[in-house]
Write a structure and sequence with these properties.
mainly beta
């Protein structure tokens, strides 16, 4: 027998002996096992509703179970198995356990369907108010958070992508922070800060944007077409207990927050919510200036306006065709100064400004040329602010 043949036989024998050592001398006595269990029946949720399904395994150590959603714009799932419905539609939740060589379990994957249905109009309004500020990427790209002119916040900003682990944008970030996203990714942002804007600096304007060149403020801008909905107060009050987050406490809180974000668009079903009924000076100043893709503004429910609070709020929102302002006291200095300058210049359909009190026609401080004002009054026995908070629409318009 040649040495090469003998060598190969010895190698084969050694491999066989090692295999027998690990399998108790008979290869089939201890086959590689699989162990992963979860309820795979269809889960049905309403928009905004959550439910948890947790996978189990007989493996005692060395394993990792992950959860993922085929359509996070419809339903997200976190790594504890908590599923949250975001918009009407269907998604598949996939549960996967990696191979565990230490305890001899093979990889295994299971899946179940999630159906998300729309609730009533009243329920949906409450859901939007309870949902943190949400951005849904409609293409690959990035969401850039800019700390303008050296602003430093009191607390960090946090975010999740598709319901995954919490990530942090440091409060003293220098320049910009990019959140890289893929088409369909859902980003939710929240923090505990009284304001995201420093003092607004009067002076030169930057190009066609209305924001001041020297202002200190946080700006959020996606590079690709992105839907926006949920409660902006999550950036001040955190992601929980948003139902009671109705008061802004510091000046310039959202100054320039989305200025220049011309890729932002409304979601067909979900609403962007600005629920504060107590405002501060400059709190929404330039908030949406240059948001050329926004067609419908958030309802503005505050009964009393403060100095500069809505100043240039919708400056150059060229597709905007709908604004509802429920304020009954609009006497504060500059509170609506140029709030609709260049708004609606590319809008389709009738451009309607619904107001609780009449405003000056033909004025960017009131009702611009080309806009129709409809003075809204509550139905008998219903307060206009309450009607917004309850999510219904018991308001009537007097043309």
């Amino acid at each position: 027998m040649s040495k090469s043949i003998f060598s190969r036989l010895m190698q084969a024998s050694l491999i066989c002996c090692l295999a027998l050592m690990f399998t108790g001398c008979h290869v089939n006595d201890n086959p590689v096992r699989t162990s992963l269990e979860i309820d795979t029946s269809t889960m049905t949720l309403s928009v905004g509703e959550s439910a948890t399904r947790t996978a189990t395994t007989e493996a005692k150590y060395g394993y990792q179970i992950t959860y993922s959603s085929s359509n996070p714009a419809v339903a997200t799932v976190d790594q504890n198995g908590k599923v949250t419905g975001l918009t009407e539609g269907e998604a598949v939740i996939t549960v996967h356990m990696d191979e565990t060589r230490e305890s001899w379990y093979a990889a295994k994957t299971l899946a179940y369907n999630v159906v998300v249905k729309n609730p009533s109009a009243e329920q949906l309004a409450n859901v939007d108010k309870a949902t943190p500020l949400t951005l849904v990427a409609l293409a690959d790209g990035k969401i850039t958070v800019t700390f303008n002119n050296g602003i430093t916040l009191a607390n960090d900003i946090h975010y999740t992508v598709n319901g995954g682990a919490e990530q942090t944008i440091a409060k003293d970030t220098k320049g910009t922070y990019d959140i890289e996203v893929k088409k369909g990714d859902v980003v939710q942002l929240y923090s505990l800060n009284t304001s995201l804007g420093g003092g607004a600096v009067a002076g030169a304007r930057g190009g066609t944007r209305a924001v001041d060149d020297g202002a200190k403020y946080i700006n959020i801008r996606p590079s690709m077409k992105t839907e926006i909905f949920g409660n902006v107060m999550s950036l001040l009050k955190g992601k929980d207990n948003l139902d009671g987050a109705d008061a802004i406490e510091a000046n310039n809180a959202f100054y320039g927050l989305f200025a220049g974000a011309d890729k932002l668009v409304n979601n067909d079903e979900r609403l962007l919510v600005l629920p504060a009924t107590t405002l501060t000076e400059g709190c929404y100043d330039n908030m949406f200036s240059g948001c050329k893709g926004i067609e419908k503004a958030p309802v503005l429910p505050a009964p009393k306006l403060e100095k500069d609070c809505y100043q240039e709020m919708f400056f150059d929102c060229s597709k905007l065709n709908s604004v509802k302002c429920l304020a009954t006291d609009i006497s504060a200095e500059g509170c609506t100064k140029n709030w609709l300058t260049n708004a609606g210049t590319e809008a389709t359909g009738e451009k309607v400004l619904e107001t609780a009190v009449p405003m000056t026609s033909g004025s960017d401080d009131g009702v611009p040329d080309g806009w129709t004002e409809k003075v809204i009054v509550p139905a008998p026995g219903v307060n206009a602010i309450d009607s917004f908070g309850n999510g219904g629409d018991p308001l009537h318009s007097d043309d």
